[in-house]
Design goal:
single chain, mainly alpha, Serine Threonine Protein Phosphatase 5, Tetratricopeptide repeat, 28 helices, 3 strands, 75% helix, disordered N terminus
Length: 627
């Protein structure tokens, strides 16, 4: 998203002398004006501590000589420093004082500026309702005094607030007005922002073709006027379109271009944005090692900037990456740190996101009541700040936790709410997951027909948006549902496809992460063993039982011994050869788990074990026992 800022430092007004004004007051005012001008220059060159000192000294003098205009100007500039530093609560306090003085002096221009700065502070704080309220007032005053640039800035920030809320119609209308004003003023910088923001809204609305058209219009203008900051943002948005279209190579290419520009202009936040997006691409495609590498680079960069909010946002992303990897202890530690920073900085959007991700950690740890509590807190914030995207995700996660607790009616209720929001805002990823989760509930209820229908819908959506993780999960669930209705060939096909995707995720991971990934992926192997045994394919079932942790061991040998070819897990024939060569009897155990309701909760429980016995003669037998 391309932000259009509505604030500029306030310069002192020209000196107006009065015959009754004492010479000492003239000198004091001149000193305060000098300090203000000095502070503006320091602010523009990012010398924030020095600028803060200059404005504070100027404020003290203006108050001593009772210069209300100068006092308001200094308060506004102090607010801008805190806004730049991410200290939004302090910024709001100063801008409210500035606003009160502007209204007292009937200074409409100053009032508009103060309102715009308050709107921007609330926007950054995540209080979108108040941001809209202040920016609407700013826009009204700007129109009254025919300040077209101010009106355009106010409309731009209104568009951003509406966009974040998911109110795409109002966002588009606001950005179209910004574009009209920018063209009338020959303001190419604002034209770039308006075009890029229109592109971003249409993309989020699901119309990626129209979104790309606007982005492609904005990019050459950004390059022509040599505006690398906006160029980098636009490249990132274009990359998102390519990624959704399944063109992963082009998506990565544009993200790398964004990263190069960000590093060239030393824009750390843009660099972090590119690293975050690259991390998402690799994690989504199953390359957790590169994904984690990029997100850790982003955290390292975040430590170099003064804005704690950015650091908290990066930590939130890292925590989610570790959750997917199965390292729940590390995930919890990082996400808890992110949440603490969010509390300290009063950042509601980051608090909302950290709580949602903490809920996922609790869910994967089997702590479903705690998961629901975290997601409910996230849901409350999402509704307060009107973040429809997170509202939908929180509803879906709550539904899944209730499913694990065995409360199927509540699970269906929450998942249907999630599905409705996802379809309204055209979020295909969340739509797919909601459909898949409903399918899981129907599976647990024994409604296998509906379960199969829903999992197939999820597979279709996952393939459409190139979401390999979801595709694998949906195939696993489909395989289980087909096993339940004893369609064994179809079940086998689905489970093998799921395992193939899962095993591709492990490439490039270190040993600890490979084991973590297997702990999450194990269900497909176990279900497939049951399917194969039911089809009397006992030898193949034994081979599948060897493919789990054995694969991590095989990859470890390959890397440690620098082998040119990766050893393959042993086939049944190889196992028989080993037994014969060693003149030994080999025994292989496999423990099967199934989902049961235990004390009303949906839980996995050991149900039976298989024991393969391979004699030195090559003869093999299988025995099954209930646990």
């Amino acid at each position: 998203m391309v932000l259009s800022a509505s604030f500029v430092p306030k310069l002192p007004m020209g000196l107006m002398t009065s015959r009754v004004l004492a010479q000492t007051v003239d000198a004091r005012k001149a000193e305060a004006d000098r300090l203000s001008q000095q502070g503006v220059k320091q602010l523009q060159t990012s010398q924030f501590s020095a600028a803060l000192s200059s404005f504070q000294k100027a404020l003290q003098i203006y108050r001593e000589i009772k210069d209300r205009a100068g006092e308001g100007q200094s308060l506004g500039n102090l607010g801008l420093i805190y806004l730049t530093l991410g200290k939004y609560v302090q910024a709001i306090e100063f801008h409210k004082q500035d606003l009160a003085i502007a209204r007292e002096l009937k200074d409409s221009f100053g009032e508009g500026q103060a309102l715009g700065n308050l709107g921007l502070a609330y926007l950054r704080l995540g209080d979108y309702g108040k941001a809209i309220e202040y920016e609407q007032q700013h826009s009204k005053i700007a129109r009254q005094i025919q300040h077209r640039q101010g009106e355009g800035n106010a409309l731009g920030n209104l568009g951003i607030a509406y966009h974040i809320q998911g109110n795409y119609g109002k966002a588009i209308k606001s950005f179209e007005q910004v574009l009209e004003i920018a063209k009338a003023l020959n303001d190419y910088f604002s034209q770039v922002k308006a075009l890029a923001n229109l592109g971003a809204v249409y993309i989020d609305q699901g119309d990626r073709v129209k979104g790309m058209e606007y982005l492609q219009k904005s990019l050459p203008i950004a390059r022509r006027i040599q505006n690398p900051q906006d160029e980098a943002m636009i490249l990132g948005n274009i990359a998102e379109v390519y990624l959704y279209q399944g063109n992963r190579l082009k998506g990565i290419d544009y993200l790398q271009k964004k990263l190069i520009i960000a590093r060239k202009i030393q824009d750390i936040e843009q660099e972090i944005s590119a690293l975050e997006m690259l991390a998402h691409v690799f994690i989504q495609s199953g390359n957790y090692d590169d994904g984690t590498s990029y997100i850790e680079q982003a955290l390292k960069k975040a430590n170099k900037i003064q804005n704690p909010k950015t650091k908290a946002r990066i930590m939130m992303s890292i925590g989610l990456a570790y959750t997917v990897l199965g390292d729940l202890t590390q995930a919890y530690k990082i996400l808890n740190s992110s949440l603490q920073i969010a509390h300290k900085t009063s950042s509601r959007p980051i608090e909302m996101g950290a709580l949602n991700n903490l809920g996922l950690v609790h869910y994967y740890a089997g702590k479903y009541a705690q998961a629901i509590d975290s997601h409910q807190q996230s849901l409350k914030i999402a509704r307060e700040i009107k973040s429809f995207d997170t509202e939908g995700k929180a509803l879906g996660n709550i539904g899944l936790a209730y499913f694990r607790l065995g409360e199927y009616e509540k699970a269906i209720e929450y998942e249907k709410q999630c599905l409705a929001i996802a379809r309204r805002i055209k979020d295909r990823e969340s739509e797919g997951k909601a459909v898949g989760n409903l399918g899981l509930v129907y599976l647990a209820n024994g409604n296998y027909k509906k379960a199969i229908e829903h999992q197939r819908q999820w597979i279709e959506i996952a393939r459409e948006i190139q979401d390999r993780q979801s595709e694998s999960s949906a195939l696993n669930n489909l395989g289980l549902a087909l096993y339940k209705i004893r369609d064994l060939p179809a079940s086998k096909k689905a489970l093998l496809a799921s395992i193939k995707i899962k095993e591709s995720f492990r490439t490039g991971l270190d040993d600890k992460k490979k084991v973590s990934i297997f702990d999450i992926q194990i269900h497909s192997y176990l279900t497939l063993q049951q399917v194969l045994i039911a089809q009397n394919e006992t030898d193949t079932a034994l081979e599948i039982s060897e493919r789990g942790r054995a694969r991590a061991f095989v990859e470890l040998l390959t890397s440690r011994l620098n082998l040119s070819e990766k050893p393959q897990p042993p086939s049944i024939e190889k196992i028989k050869q080993i037994a014969k060569a060693q003149n030994s009897t080999l025994v292989q155990y496999s423990i099967i788990t199934e989902d049961f309701k235990v004390a009303g909760k949906q839980q996995s429980k050991k149900s039976q074990h298989y024991k393969w016995v391979i004699n030195p003669t090559g003869e093999d037998t299988i025995r099954r026992a209930e646990i």
